[in-house]
Design a protein that fits this description.
The protein is about 20% helix and about 25% strand. It has about 210 residues and is α+β, with helices and mostly antiparallel strands. The strands form two sheets. A seven-stranded mixed beta sheet has the order 2-3-9-6-11-5-4. The protein has a four-stranded mixed beta sheet with strand order 1-8-7-10, with no helix packed on it. α2 packs antiparallel against α3.
């Protein structure tokens, strides 16, 4: 097993890396299992979010319409006691924008929005999510790890999505499944003292069935 530095030049087969969010539409092309918006947050934001006590990081899970995301995220931040300021405002707007983009791209009226604060080994086994598609962004800590496996075993080469870079991935319920063998996991951080803040977005077709 080897770990690889991820860049647009060495992305795994079936993974598109783009510089602009609009170009994530390549995800819907045949043979694409994932797409990454290759961006880096402003250093001032990264320093701020990395310094916050874990107790002030927001966590929560809601099924909601895109137009409800902004107010819902603010409420999550308030409950956590996240301090006000320009960096918090940027995070609210970024989550809201990603949610609207994802809902439009998937043509759904509802989303499941989840903010996770992770300090241990959550979902450390490589897998494919049992959803149509999933949109992830790690704002703090090590990003999602992925690799290609053709035999069901752990990938031999593991790539790590950069912190702050959103990744869009197909799940097992995608209507036209591909055989790319792309698997992913949360990085194992047990015992390292690391704290991750991760946004997870899933498309919801029927809110009553998804509760």
């Amino acid at each position: 097993m080897g770990f690889q530095r991820l860049s647009p030049e060495n992305a795994a087969i079936g993974v598109t890396m783009v510089d602009l969010p609009e170009a994530l539409s390549g995800f819907f092309e045949t043979g694409q299992a994932a797409a990454i918006w290759y961006r880096q947050p402003e250093q001032a934001f990264q320093d701020w979010i990395d310094r916050l006590p874990a107790a002030q990081l927001p966590r929560g899970r809601e099924i909601l319409r895109p137009e409800q995301v902004h107010a819902t995220v603010i409420a999550m931040f308030d409950r956590a006691g996240m301090p006000a300021g320009p960096q918090r405002d940027w995070l609210v707007e970024d989550i809201t924008a990603l949610a609207h983009f994802f809902a439009d791209a998937m043509s759904v009226a509802h989303l499941r929005l989840r903010l996770d604060v992770i300090t241990g080994n959550a979902c450390r086994r490589f897998h494919i999510d049992a959803v149509t598609a999933r949109f992830l962004c790690t704002y703090r800590g090590t990003g999602t790890q992925f690799g290609v496996s053709t035999d069901g075993q752990e990938p031999r080469e593991i790539f790590t999505v950069p912190t702050g870079a959103p990744i869009l991935m197909r799940g097992t319920e995608w209507p036209d499944p591909n055989a790319s063998g792309l698997l992913h996991r949360s990085p194992p951080i047990e015992g390292t003292g690391e704290t991750r803040l991760v946004l997870v977005l899933d498309p919801i077709t029927d809110p009553e069935d998804a509760v």
